[in-house]
Write a structure and sequence with these properties.
Elements (H helix, E strand, L loop, with lengths): L30 H7 L2 H11 L12 H17 L2 E2 L6 E11 L4 E4 L2 E4 L4 E4 L6 E11 L5 E2 L4 E2 L10 E5 L24 H10 L4 E5 L2 H4 L3 H7 L3 E5 L11 E5 L1 H10 L4 H10 L4 E27 L4 E11 L4 E2 L8 E2 L2 H19 L7 E8 L7 H8 L8 E6 L11 E4 L7 H11 L3 E4 L13 H6 L4 E6 L6 H14 L17 H18 L17
Parallel strand pairs: 6-9, 9-10, 10-12, 14-17, 14-18, 18-21, 19-20
Antiparallel strand pairs: 1-13, 2-11, 2-13, 3-4, 3-13, 5-12, 6-13, 7-8, 13-17, 15-16, 19-21
Length: about 550
């Protein structure tokens, strides 16, 4: 993966100090009424239904998908939105479901590691059996090839047929004062998806990432749950033959054990990798056999449009993902990953926002489209498919606004901007935040790389300005601060776990506030003739 640069689209942006629009947005008779009418009750009801056990965790291609699609289509139709894909509200997405047999053992040197306990492994290749046998292990530091940062961990290496072991995140994370990459703020080079992609380009046979909780930004249980069970990819013409045969993770303890056997100290080797491009043969071999069952299936993105009154070919696209992790019938007790926070909240916000736009007495000049995508949890597959097979031409897509894991911790004085500083969309966001008496702040943990972890990223890679923002970290009052502290303890550790469930005692005022906020952002763009641009310092530009 090289730095993502796109040729500029000149002459489209007119900036006016304050909000980035060339003229005040047209005023409708009932904008304020509609804005105020966005309802906590509606949001709560949608979240409760979508995250109920009846929806079985909303795994793609299951009965959970059928129920979810039926619910979304029923609501969009009642609101009067039009099908976004010709005469259909659906965009089929061909998926390859590959489920690895958990009866596997990864051997590295003389050490053996058990599935989900201290390793996970799978394949993206459309093969029922992939065998890694006595493959030489090479530590390749962060596994990054980034010419613009003068960094190439693969320089001078031939890793064809070999197993590369890779550190998570990028070189700036644990050495922020070094000036390397973007310090604590993760770049795309720190994402696990990039590391597998680059290892594949280098011709490696297997790529194993070392899990560490801080630089990964999640614990081992998230890896064990997310990378086991059915794994989805997009159907490709070559059956993913160009991917590494084995993609996996090992725990930090497992990595230290392997390095010790190789006569190396893991901490010392990692320190060298932090200073500059680095690689080191471990003089050990890796072996694992991954037996998989495969099933081609079709899931669906949902797309619904409110046509514009003057420039209907120009669209603002709101995104959210409807899917979650389904259920695990091997678990004792609760088996359903309900995904209430992630992402019944964003899906509910899409429905509430769609209703708000539909209820405007004067239709916005531009079209407003709601794209509720599948398979986000499997690597942003639904939005990736859409961005590569767009129904609305990308050069007619003015902006993307994404909603994922909305604020359940009450109202805040600030708005957290994920990937702050990337585009002029923040001018519109600042205006909308001012109405609420709020200020924009950088996301709490830029080192987690959240800008590269949700569906707006698929649009950003194609050059479409994309905004991801939600409730911040400064509670609006003391009562909210107490609730926030109490609920944070309850929710802690529930990301991608069965405890991500709907709770009657959630404070839905924060979700309402952010839904109003993003409604106004989209409204202002939809009633303007301007084309918000990427900032010059962003790694993205319009094609």
């Amino acid at each position: 993966m090289r730095k993502i640069l796109f040729s500029s689209l000149a002459g489209l942006t007119i900036l006016v100090a304050g909000c980035g629009t060339s003229a005040p947005p047209q005023v409708t008779d009932n904008f304020d009424e509609i804005y105020q009418g966005i309802s906590e009750t509606d949001l709560k009801d949608h979240i409760k239904i979508l995250s109920s056990d009846e929806f079985e965790g909303r795994l793609p291609t299951t009965v959970g998908e059928e129920k979810t699609l039926a619910y979304l289509l029923d609501n969009f139709k009642k609101m009067g939105l039009q099908p976004g894909n010709g005469d259909s509200f659906l965009q089929p997405v061909e998926l390859m479901e590959i489920t690895a047999d958990p009866e596997m053992t990864l051997t590295m040197g003389n050490s053996s590691f058990a599935y989900k306990e201290n390793m996970v492994a799978s394949t993206k290749r459309e093969q029922t059996k992939v065998e890694l046998k006595d493959s030489e292990i090479v530590f390749v530091g962060y596994g990054v090839n980034a010419p613009e940062y003068n960094w190439n961990d693969y320089a001078g290496l031939d890793v064809k047929g070999k197993t590369v072991v890779i550190l998570v995140n990028d070189p700036g994370f644990e050495n922020p004062e070094s000036g390397k990459f973007q310090g604590k703020t993760m770049t795309y080079y720190g994402r696990w998806s990039y590391k597998y992609e680059e290892a594949s380009r280098q011709g490696a046979e297997a790529a194993i990432i070392v899990h560490e909780t801080a630089p990964a930004s999640y614990g081992w249980s998230v890896v064990a749950n997310s990378w086991s069970g059915p794994q989805y990819g997009l159907v490709t013409s070559n059956g993913n033959a160009d991917r590494v045969a084995v993609e996996g993770w090992i725990t930090l303890a497992a990595a230290k054990q392997v390095f010790t056997e190789a006569g190396l100290d893991y901490v010392a080797e990692k320190s060298k990798a932090m200073q500059g491009p680095y690689s080191q043969s471990l003089s050990l071999n890796a072996s694992v056999t991954v037996n998989s069952s495969m099933k081609k299936s079709v899931s669906n993105n949902v797309i619904a449009t409110l046509p514009g009154s003057q420039s209907p070919d120009e669209h603002i696209i709101y995104t959210a993902h409807w899917d979650h992790l389904g259920k695990d019938e091997t678990k004792e007790g609760d088996q359903i990953y309900n995904g209430a926070h992630d992402n019944a909240t964003g899906t509910a916000a899409s429905l509430s926002m769609a209703k708000a736009f539909a209820d405007l007495s004067v239709r916005p000049a531009r079209s407003v489209t709601f794209l509720v995508v599948t398979a986000e949890e499997q690597g942003l597959l639904g939005s990736k498919y859409y961005s590569e097979h767009p129904i609305i031409a990308l050069d007619k897509t003015v902006a993307n606004i994404n909603m994922d894991a909305m604020n359940i911790l009450g109202k805040t004085k600030d708005v957290s901007v994920v990937g702050m500083g990337k585009s002029e969309l923040e001018n519109y966001l600042s205006k909308a935040a001012t109405r609420q008496g709020r200020v924009l702040t950088q996301e709490d943990r830029p080192e987690a790389g959240y800008y590269y972890r949700s569906d707006h990223f698929s649009f950003a890679k194609q050059g479409v300005p994309a905004l991801y923002a939600k409730g911040g970290n400064q509670p609006v009052d003391d009562e909210t601060a107490k609730y926030r502290k109490r609920m944070s303890l309850i929710q802690r550790g529930c990301y991608h776990q069965v405890c991500d469930q709907f709770r009657e005692n959630w404070d839905f005022s924060g979700i309402k506030e952010d839904t109003q906020l993003l409604f106004e952002v989209g409204y202002d763009i939809a009633t303007s003739a301007d084309w918000p641009a990427w900032n010059e310092t962003s790694e993205f530009q319009r094609k």
